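Consider this today:
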Amino acid sequence: MTTYCNAYATCTECGDPFPERRRQLGYDTCLECGEEAAVTARLGWCIAPIAHKQGATLVTNPKDLKGLNKYTAS
């Protein structure tokens, strides 16, 4: 039998309460602040095809991305 508690933790960003279970999962922010941080982090990501059969690769460094373009002179 699963029991749910109504305890709340406090968001470190905005100070609003959020469920204690979320804190137990390792988060210290509410959903809204967590989503904002995730969106900001994803702005620096790029998925690029690297090799013929390798598929797409996550590139987070813009300098690496510029070096992967086979159409630019190096």
